[in-house]
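Annex B. Sample input.
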Amino acid sequence: MDRKWFFEGRPVRTRTDRNEVLADARTVLGRFGGDAVFRTSSDLARGSTSPDFLADELAGGRAFTDHMMDLGLIAVSADEVGVFWSFNAN
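Annex B, continued. Sample output.
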């Protein structure tokens, strides 16, 4: 995992290296284990029975959140807490 995760220029769903980016994300989130609890600032994801940040419904410009494009994910396991946040998320 040698990718730089700062200043991503466009949404993952539109990138040519989408699969590699998703593999990196799975690696990072996988460290929290199967019993981890995840929370998000995304109204769209919280209201879905199957939240998918890459779903086609988001490609049409539907907002992740009502919080000024502020998108966050908090991961909590028995051993650690991770906070992942993006400002100006699109």
